[in-house]
Design goal:
This protein is of the alpha/beta class. The protein is built from 14 helices and 13 strands. The protein is globular.
Length: about 400
């Protein structure tokens, strides 16, 4: 059987009632509303938390960057792919998140894939070694894949129950005399399917107590969480105390692409030598770099954008519960509307689109069986009318499908 036949069989297998359909095309920019097949709908599925992807200041910066620096750099960083603006952006991110230094990647996924093998696959100055990663059960796929790239013969992977700090401490205590070279606690800052936060202050304390390195993927928190959008470290009062922060430029910070790792200057210097996705990938194009600089400048000068996001989020969370829907509690713009069955999540998503709201359903294997949901994502780009229109549609469709009474 050739590979075409194998792939054809696999496609047929996965194209069931529960398969994901990806191709929804928009004919407008990413904003509070978008146009789908000629119809304007409220956007409740985007990572564009601050509305930066269509912000006039950000767009202008991207346009000016192309005029001044060109379309692309046509090289990796260490050959001829570094422009002064790359260093400028790295310094700006470092200052914003309270780190000594920052290294840019093509995406946050690439950053997470780079970090773990770069650190753990190298012998360094130790003749024999064994390392360990303690990872939250609900960590992002990029962390999981980063760990998969590590040598299994020298690495122990230990999964602790989601946000169960007590269980994590039991593991760390049990391993005190194990003689590990590197001990890494790895967690999302905000968990993308749940919209809840890691208990970061407690994790910082555990990392110090047990001499472990704390790695936090703050992709859904940068620009979003904390009074000024500096992420989960700001929210929990530990800004500057997290050993390694990975983040993205592709969500709140402009919504294009690009990722980074921020941390100790020596760590970043080491990653520039050993992180393969950094060494062998083209560096970020000027338009994205300058637009990201503009986005961070906006955040630094005007915290009202973050405040508007928080206000919109609190309003939607309060009202959707008032209508009668069950949501996972919290304060993040990710608002999981729990439905249970995959078929219901699919049906409701389709019905809401017809009613003027774009929101996607999630079901197994993305979330556990029986926990299918609509993942609403609130944005500062939404007006109160946009949110009220969406709530009206939710109520109408919810009653029609007997989700609420």
């Amino acid at each position: 059987m050739n590979y075409i036949n194998l792939l054809t069989e696999e496609i047929a297998r996965i194209q069931t009632a529960n398969s994901y359909k990806f191709e929804t095309a928009f004919s407008t920019p990413q904003a509070g509303t978008v146009t789908v097949k000629g119809k304007e709908v409220v956007m409740l599925a985007s990572n564009n938390y601050l509305g930066m992807s269509n912000n006039p200041v950000v767009k202008k910066a991207a346009i000016e960057a192309i005029k001044e620096y060109g379309y692309g750099v046509a090289s990796v960083r260490f050959i001829c792919g570094t422009q002064t603006i790359h260093y400028e952006l790295e310094k700006k991110i470092s200052k914003f998140v309270g780190a000594e230094d920052t290294i840019l990647f093509s995406s946050a996924f690439a950053a997470n894939n780079a970090f773990f093998p770069a650190l753990l696959n190298e012998q360094l100055s130790v003749e024999t070694y064994r390392d360990v990663i303690y990872t939250d059960a609900l960590n992002h796929a990029s962390i999981i894949d980063g760990m998969r790239l590590c040598k299994t013969e020298t690495l122990d992977k230990k999964i602790y129950r989601h946000n169960d700090v007590a269980q994590l401490e039991q593991m760390l205590e049990a391993d005190k005399s194990a003689g590990y070279r590197f001990k890494i606690i790895a967690t999302d800052g905000v968990f993308s399917m749940e919209g809840d936060h890691a208990h970061l202050a407690e994790l910082v304390g555990l990392a110090k107590k047990y001499e472990a390195l704390l790695f936090v993927d703050d992709c859904h928190a940068i620009g979003v969480v904390g009074k000024t959008g500096r992420g989960t470290p700001e929210k929990f009062g530990v800004l500057g105390s997290v050993d390694v922060l990975s983040g993205t430029l592709g969500k709140a910070i402009g919504g294009a692409l690009g990722g980074y790792i921020s941390g100790n200057k020596k760590l970043v210097e080491y990653l520039r030598q050993k992180a393969r996705p950094y060494t062998f990938s083209n560096s970020l194009p000027p338009a994205i770099v300058k637009a990201s600089i503009a986005a961070f400048d906006l955040l630094t000068k005007d915290t009202s954008i973050v405040k508007r996001l928080h206000t919109n989020t609190a309003y939607f969370r309060k009202e959707i519960k008032g209508i009668g829907f069950h949501i996972l509690d919290g304060d993040h713009p990710i608002v999981p509307v729990m439905l249970g069955e995959a078929s219901l999540a699919q049906e409701m998503s389709k019905a809401l689109l017809k009613a003027g709201v774009y929101v996607k359903g999630l079901w197994f294997p993305v979330v556990p069986k029986g926990e299918a949901r609509l993942r609403v994502q609130i944005s500062a780009a939404l007006s109160k009318k946009n949110i009220d229109d969406a709530l009206t549609a939710f109520e109408t469709v919810g009653k029609k499908l007997k989700v609420i009474s």
